[in-house]
Amino acid sequence: MPYAQAIKEFVVAEFLPDVSPAELDADYDLLASGVIDSLGLLKVIAWIEDRYGIDTDTVELRPESFHTVAAIDAFITHASPQRAKSA
Questions:
Q1: pLDDT, tens only, 39-52
Q2: Concatenated DSSP letters for 1-32?
Q3: Residue 69 maps to a domain
Q4: Number of folded domains in the chain?
């Protein structure tokens, strides 16, 4: 998971100020637990666009892509511009 640490740091900074990134399990369900709500999800998507240069208007956004750090990592890996260039 190449992006997991950065995702954890973002989630902790924005939504879990009392937790360290090391404490956030990559498989913890961020949506079901209420850590990220619908407005928070928009913040996550905006962060992904800014940080990784992913145009989310051109990729399919599914809720399951944002349930966990691992799922977000897989989404970024799949949607990153570098991958699109090599495909």
A1: 999 999 999 999 99
A2: -TTHHHHHHHHHHHH-TTS-GGGS-TT--TTT
A3: yes
A4: 1
